[in-house]
């Protein structure tokens, strides 16, 4: 499995941090002494920034490189992204090649920083990539299973401790508290899904995003409009026809789309079958405020939409 990040570089030495802290201690502004304000934490995208912020608590502020509503699969980096990367000391990525845009940004930004790959230690499911001569591609969508997000939290906690050892106790306590919330979320999802008759636990999605979610909560994946792990791929007339046959054969009640996905093909399929199109899931991004302001809210919102469409 090729790792997206080939090197983990600790840029800022602890000594440098101490020098900064001592510098401010000697200045008249003594209120800022214990604030590690020189640590700039950046996550690739909004749900990762939220997860990391829960671990960082009030010690550090975690920014998101991508804005709300951006689709990481199709993301085109802006020149301002180079500056954001250049200013970061700690960069948090999902990994499994989700951040296809990051290599060139890192090259252009130069400098050094600690990079945390949140999925480190997890084994991605593999899928054949038809657009790429049948090569196997790893499925990056692990955040849609809260149990796997526990590993995200552990990796983020360890990275924060590495750049800010003084905050270690707080990061450990915050991580434990958030892991407890993730376990509660998992239990809640199981309860919700149990209200769907077993034979109706069928998922049709725009692209192949729901694999880990389906695996954990006992859904069958009937198919995807774009039979790819990325939205940045196409579909053929033959694939569309096959999916329509699958939907008719299984009686799948609905097609679920993420907010950033184009509903045109889904609506075409709905014209030929009895499915309804639910285009209000948030799979790849949080929203600025309700209904998916946090990772927890995003998951609860999606599950509520899925349950009400399939029940
Ligand atoms: Zn996706």
Low-confidence stretches: 1-34
Beta-strand residue fraction: 5-15%
Question: How many DSSP H or I helices?
Answer: 10
| End-to-end C-alpha gap | 39 Å
Q: Give the C-alpha Rg.
A: 21 Å
Strand order of the largest sheet: 2-1-3-4
In short:
The chain is of the alpha/beta class.
What are the SSEs and their pairings?
Elements (H helix, E strand, L loop, with lengths): L13 H13 L14 E3 L2 H11 L5 E3 L14 H9 L2 E4 L8 H8 L4 E4 L8 E4 L5 E4 L7 H18 L4 H26 L8 E6 L3 H7 L2 E7 L10 H14 L3 E5 L5 H9 L3 E6 L13 H16 L1
Parallel strand pairs: 1-2, 1-3, 3-4, 7-8, 7-9, 9-10
Antiparallel strand pairs: 5-6
Describe this structure in words.
The strands form three sheets. The chain has a four-stranded parallel β-sheet with strand order 2-1-3-4, with helices on one face. It has 311 residues and is of the alpha/beta class. The chain is built from ten helices and ten strands. The protein is globular and about 60 Å long. Helix 2 (46-56) packs across helix 5 and helix 3 packs across helix 4 (102-109). The chain starts with 13 loop residues before the first helix and ends with a helix. The protein has helices spanning 14-26, 46-56, 79-87, 102-109, 146-163, 168-193, 211-217, 237-250, 264-272, 295-310, and strands at 41-43, 62-64, 90-93, 114-117, 126-129, 135-138, 202-207, 220-226, 254-258, 276-281. 42% of the residues lie in helices and 15% in strands. Zinc ion (ZN) binds next to loops.
């Amino acid at each position: 499995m090729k790792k997206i990040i080939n090197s983990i570089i600790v840029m800022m030495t602890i000594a440098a941090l101490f020098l900064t802290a001592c510098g401010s201690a000697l200045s008249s502004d003594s209120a800022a002494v214990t604030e590690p304000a020189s640590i700039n934490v950046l996550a690739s995208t909004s749900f990762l920034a939220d997860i990391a912020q829960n671990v960082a608590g009030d010690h550090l502020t975690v920014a998101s490189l991508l804005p709300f509503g951006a689709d990481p699969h199709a993301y085109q980096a802006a020149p301002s992204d180079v500056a954001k990367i250049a200013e970061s000391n700690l960069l948090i990525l999902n990994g499994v090649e989700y951040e296809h845009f990051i290599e060139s940004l890192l090259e252009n930004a130069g400098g050094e920083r600690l990079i945390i790959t949140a999925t480190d230690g997890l084994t991605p499911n593999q899928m054949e990539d038809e657009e790429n001569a049948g090569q196997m591609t790893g499925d990056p969508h692990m955040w849609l299973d809260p149990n796997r997000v526990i590993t995200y939290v552990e990796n983020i906690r360890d990275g924060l401790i590495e750049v800010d050892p003084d905050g270690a106790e707080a990061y450990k306590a915050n991580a434990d508290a958030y892991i407890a919330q993730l376990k509660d979320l998992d239990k809640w999802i199981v309860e919700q899904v149990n209200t769907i008759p077993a034979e109706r636990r069928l998922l049709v999605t725009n692209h192949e995003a729901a694999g880990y979610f389906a695996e954990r909560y006992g859904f069958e994946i009937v198919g995807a409009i774009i039979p790819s792990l990325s939205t940045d791929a196409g579909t053929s007339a033959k694939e569309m026809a096959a999916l329509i046959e699958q939907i008719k054969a299984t009686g799948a009640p609905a097609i679920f789309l993420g907010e950033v996905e184009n509903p045109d093909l889904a609506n075409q399929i709905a014209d030929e079958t009895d499915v309804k199109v639910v285009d209000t899931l948030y799979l790849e991004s949080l929203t600025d405020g309700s209904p998916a302001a946090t990772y927890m809210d995003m998951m609860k919102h999606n599950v509520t939409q899925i349950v009400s469409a399939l029940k």
